[in-house]
């Protein structure tokens, strides 16, 4: 079958189209013939060798297609071997495309629990773009932060896949959503997709301006930080607010004012991609009809994976970049 094959770690140029054997049937696993695969920043880290993937390797966590055994249209949960506890993944946890062949291919093999019915009304590209950012945003906002209708949420960094999905989920829950962004165009797009308002985070005083924009000017109930700016994000919280963090692509270390943190009665919640229970909760919310499909920034054929990664790393897009058949 046709697949993107990495024979070395490095820049986008290592993503070359090639051939791989088709998945072999085995008990408890299903083969999915893919119609679309969505990109995530995690794929860039895999490509760079951050997760020690075996070479040659086919990356890709997100996908949607047809089960070869039943003919059912499905979306793929990238969380493999989550384990028995809902509060954190077990020791065998892995992400599709890290150590097992991923979705940048014509077909992929996954545990049966990781194949769920494709949401009604979603295109193949939208379905492929849903799982990783969807289950990540759902776990962050619902499972970990406990976001409720009527609460206020600030999302740091409008434009990325997690941020755009978080806007959709939080709006469906009934929260008031605010964002920060690097350009007026990204803020305008966020408003068009459900955000109440936003501020540019290009100035040093953006935390103070964001806090002032919160309802009542006291700060936000919940702040979602998918980029690693904890020391600034925490300054936008109301007393007793919750900061939920899940990424570090902007900063991997954050100096914190410890006294200000505990006097503020803040909660700091770490999270990652969710598991099967989170995925089920996400799909139930989606099937309720209140969640807008993921925004698709660009759809490219599989043999343009290199170009797709270049677009992803440039960071000028709003929404998800998808590879299609």
Automatic annotation (TrEMBL):
<dbReference type="InterPro" id="IPR051603">
    <property type="entry name" value="Zinc-ADH_QOR/CCCR"/>
</dbReference>
<dbReference type="Pfam" id="PF08240">
    <property type="entry name" value="ADH_N"/>
</dbReference>
<dbReference type="InterPro" id="IPR020843">
    <property type="entry name" value="ER"/>
</dbReference>
<dbReference type="InterPro" id="IPR011032">
    <property type="entry name" value="GroES-like_sf"/>
</dbReference>
<feature type="domain" description="Enoyl reductase (ER)">
    <location>
        <begin position="10"/>
        <end position="323"/>
    </location>
</feature>
<keyword id="KW-0521">NADP</keyword>
<dbReference type="InterPro" id="IPR013149">
    <property type="entry name" value="ADH-like_C"/>
</dbReference>
<dbReference type="InterPro" id="IPR036291">
    <property type="entry name" value="NAD(P)-bd_dom_sf"/>
</dbReference>
<dbReference type="Pfam" id="PF00107">
    <property type="entry name" value="ADH_zinc_N"/>
</dbReference>
<dbReference type="InterPro" id="IPR013154">
    <property type="entry name" value="ADH-like_N"/>
</dbReference>
<protein>
    <submittedName>
        <fullName>Oxidoreductase</fullName>
    </submittedName>
</protein>
């Amino acid at each position: 079958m046709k697949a993107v094959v990495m024979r070395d770690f490095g820049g986008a140029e290592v993503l070359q189209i090639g051939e791989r054997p088709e998945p072999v049937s085995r008990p408890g696993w299903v083969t999915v013939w893919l119609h679309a695969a969505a990109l995530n920043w995690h794929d860039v880290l895999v490509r760079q060798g951050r997760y020690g993937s075996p070479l040659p390797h086919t990356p890709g966590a997100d996908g949607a297609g047809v089960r070869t055994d039943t003919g059912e249209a499905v979306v793929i949960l990238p969380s493999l071997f989550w384990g028995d506890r809902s509060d954190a993944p077990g020791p065998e946890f892995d992400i599709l495309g890290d150590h097992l062949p991923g979705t940048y291919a014509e077909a992929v093999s996954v545990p049966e629990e990781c194949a769920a019915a494709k949401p009604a009304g979603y295109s193949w590209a939208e379905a492929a773009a849903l799982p990783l950012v969807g289950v990540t945003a759902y776990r962050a906002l619902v499972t970990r932060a406990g976001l409720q209708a009527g609460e206020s949420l600030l999302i740091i960094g409008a434009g990325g896949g997690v941020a755009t999905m978080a806007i959709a989920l939080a709006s469906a829950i009934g929260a008031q959503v605010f964002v920060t962004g690097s350009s007026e165009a990204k803020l305008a797009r966020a408003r068009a997709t459900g955000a109440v308002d936003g501020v540019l985070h290009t100035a040093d005083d953006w935390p103070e301006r964001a806090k002032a924009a919160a309802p009542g000017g006291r700060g936000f109930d919940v702040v979602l930080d998918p980029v690693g700016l904890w020391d600034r994000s925490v300054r936008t919280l109301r007393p007793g607010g919750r900061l939920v963090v899940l990424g570090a692509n902007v900063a991997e270390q954050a100096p914190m004012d410890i006294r200000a943190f505990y006097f503020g009665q803040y909660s700091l919640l770490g999270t990652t991609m969710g598991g099967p229970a989170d995925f089920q909760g996400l799909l139930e919310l989606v099937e309720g009809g209140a969640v807008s499909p993921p925004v698709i920034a660009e759809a490219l054929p599989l043999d343009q994976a290199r170009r797709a990664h270049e677009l992803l790393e440039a960071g000028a897009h709003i929404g998800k970049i998808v590879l299609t058949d």
